[in-house]
Specification:
Structural class: mainly alpha
Shape: elongated
Radius of gyration: 19 Å
CATH architecture: Up-down Bundle
Strand content: under 5%
Number of domains: 1
CATH superfamily: Phosphate transport system protein phou homolog 2, domain 2
Largest sheet: none
Number of strands: 0
Helix content: over 70%
Number of helices: 6
CATH topology: Methane Monooxygenase Hydroxylase, Chain G, domain 1
């Protein structure tokens, strides 16, 4: 009985670390959005430095999860919860990397690219709805909330495709310098689209956690 109580305490601590990691990711992308709106290089640099803190949380989650498995040999729902924590942490870490890459784009941008920044801001606003929503679903083990994220991802994907079409037109009609700027923006669009895919991965893992079934949302 005492071992079970200790296991539950450690499992709760693991889940709380995942939620804390999610909060840090949300904060990073809120700062990315702010940095984009003002082209704030100083804030972009802070986001890059903050990524090490996020990575350290992921390492801590991995260590705790593997120790739980080694010491307690969990089965059924308990094992699913540990595995889910590991998988969600991995997706969150990748999402954090995208925040870093977008920050580097801000730092390296030297030309007026207001037309692309507007599009990046629009995509970031979609993504922020997704990451906030999925972390709410994680905190509540809520499948319904998790599945709603898939609808947001479809909207994000559609916006991404529209922006790509616009950039293709630029490639056919503009100067070499303008095309280069457009391609740099395209890479950022892709980063945000991929971040959305990782959010849907988290949604899939919530479904797996709650009912043990694997679903494909991407």
């Amino acid at each position: 009985m005492q071992n079970r109580k200790k296991f539950i305490t450690e499992l709760d601590a693991l889940n709380n670390k995942v939620l804390d990691m999610g909060k840090e990711i949300v904060l990073s992308f809120e700062n990315v959005l702010s940095a984009c709106k003002t082209m704030n290089v100083s804030l972009a640099n802070e986001i890059i430095l903050h990524d090490k803190f996020i990575n350290d949380i992921e390492v801590s989650i991995n260590v705790d999860a593997y120790l739980l498995i080694a010491k307690q040999c969990p089965v059924a729902t308990d094992l699913r919860r540990v595995i889910t924590a590991l998988k969600i942490a991995t997706d969150l870490e990748r999402i954090g990397d995208y925040a870093v890459n977008i920050s580097k784009y801000i730092i390296k941008t030297k030309h007026d690219n207001s037309q692309y920044i507007k599009s990046i801001i629009k995509l970031l606003e979609y993504f922020l709805k997704m990451i906030r929503g999925i972390m709410d679903a994680v905190s509540k083990d809520n499948i319904e909330l998790a599945l709603q994220i898939n609808e947001l991802d479809e909207k994000l994907d559609n916006e991404y495709k529209n922006e790509v079409k616009n950039l293709i037109k630029v490639g056919k009609t503009k100067s070499e310098e303008e095309v280069e700027e457009a391609m740099r923006a395209l890479l950022v669009f892709k980063q945000i689209e991929r971040a959305g895919d990782h959010v849907t991965n988290i949604a899939e893992n919530i479904v797996y956690l709650v009912n043990g079934k694997r679903v494909e949302l991407n």
